[in-house]
Write a structure and sequence with these properties.
By secondary structure, this protein is an alpha/beta fold. It is built from 14 helices and 15 strands. Helix 2 links the parallel strand 2 and strand 3.
């Protein structure tokens, strides 16, 4: 598929996802270096691609300190490391896939875009939803005009209750000081896709949110700090840690417990953040939030982000001047009605696709590779400039939540 060579900075769940795709679609050996302080995770990628020990680094800084020896950096470092790792990689001569969010401050996002323009590198920000086939079909329908002008757009991001507990209560994104606020960490690409679907500039934003449930006062009576210490609610609590991590599950993979023996994993749950009671985890990010957006042309949009759903996914409702559309993104189903055609209903099943984010992560990588090899940067839908524009809306929304007011996007210009 390509002769480009890749470096992966960050060997966590996302880094391993892209490593597997590259091994399968480009070939084992396409990744020639990996950096991560976790030796076990680093070794998974090293073994998959035959990476020699001298190209396995403890930190991204160690890898980037070498003279340029590959073509593309897959940057899946932690959110707060993006500003330094991204700008260093671009200045060292690398093109890049940069995991979202771009960075955790607006100033850092602006700087990343500035360096990208200065260096002329090809950078794709991993807003996977822009590359999801269901959204691509919705975009086609909306742009065709069959439901008229988009007057209001509603999106539900269903985080799913276990996903919330894993990532945003116990995990790396549970405390804003360690990462960033949840709307940026989880939902910056939801804001991005809402703006893309409406197809206009956001003028003003409001937002409300709370950390309502995952709090100490909601812990079951007698609950210990760590589940394995013996919790009286263990049988019925869906968040009890041994249910989630002492098996070869999706969550054990993303936490690294699948790399441990069952005995070591059980012992680790007595000290690991993933073993903590979800009501005593020290988390501080919202567990539900709503964002309202007003666009320059008069359209409105809402985004609801919530932990309290039985499954993950995204659900869309679009209210047009001449019709209405509903979509279940992960189910790949779209229905729309045309008012001026006797309320005619059309149903579309988007073909299934393999891979993470419904095949969209694969499209992200394919797009970047094609752009680099063809010398056509316009193939990239989510370059740093586009991402900066919608990140700006996210920062405004969080400011609106904190200050309990409507924020004009122009305030940040």
């Amino acid at each position: 598929m390509t002769n480009l060579k890749f470096i992966i900075l960050g060997a966590g769940g996302r880094g391993q996802t892209f490593s597997k795709w590259l091994a399968s679609e480009v070939g084992a050996g396409s990744v020639i270096a990996v950096a991560d302080p976790n030796v076990a995770r680093r070794n998974v990628i090293a073994e998959a691609h035959g990476i020699p020990p001298e190209r396995c680094y403890d930190t991204w800084q160690d890898a980037m300190a070498e003279e340029k020896f590959a073509d593309v950096v897959i940057n899946t470092t932690m959110d707060r490391d993006h500003i330094a790792s991204a700008t260093t990689a671009m200045r060292a001569g690398y093109h890049m896939m940069l995991e979202k969010p771009m960075a955790v401050t607006l100033a850092d996002c602006i700087e990343i875009d500035r360096v990208r323009q200065e260096t002329g590198r090809y950078v794709i920000v991993c807003h996977s939803l822009r590359y999801h086939a269901t959204y691509s079909e919705i975009r086609r329908i909306l742009r065709s005009g069959v439901i008229g002008d988009v007057l209001s757009y509603d999106q539900l991001e269903a985080i799913e209750h276990i996903h919330m507990s894993h990532s945003f209560v116990r995990g790396n994104w549970s405390r804003e000081g360690d990462s960033t606020f949840i709307l940026m960490a989880k939902s910056c690409h939801d804001v991005d896709i809402v703006v893309d679907m409406v197809g206009d500039d956001v003028k003003s934003v409001s937002s409300f949110g709370e950390l309502s449930f995952f709090r100490p006062e909601n812990a079951p009576a007698g609950a210990p700090n760590f589940c394995v210490e013996g919790c009286p609610a263990a049988e019925t609590c869906p968040y009890e840690s041994s249910k989630l991590y002492l098996n070869k599950s999706y969550w054990s993979f993303h936490s690294g417990f699948d790399l441990l023996t069952p005995e070591d994993a059980k012992t680790a749950l007595g000290t690991s953040p993933y073993g903590r009671c979800v009501f005593k985890a020290g988390n501080d990010v919202m567990d539900h939030q709503v964002v309202s957006m007003k666009f320059a042309g008069g359209a409105t949009a809402t985004l609801t982000v919530t932990a309290f759903t039985p499954h993950g996914g995204r659900f869309v409702r679009v209210h047009g001047s001449k019709g209405y559309l509903e979509a279940r993104i992960d189910e790949r189903k779209i229905d729309y009605w045309q008012f001026w055609e006797g309320n005619k209903k059309t149903s579309i099943d988007v073909p299934a696709a393999e891979g993470s984010h419904g095949g969209a992560d694969a499209t992200v990588m394919q797009t970047l590779i094609q752009a680099i090899e063809s010398g056509e940067p316009n193939l990239i839908q989510t370059d740093t400039g586009t991402s900066l524009k919608t990140h700006r809306v996210v920062f405004c929304a969080e400011q609106a939540r904190r200050e309990n007011r409507v924020v004009e996007v122009s305030e940040t210009n």
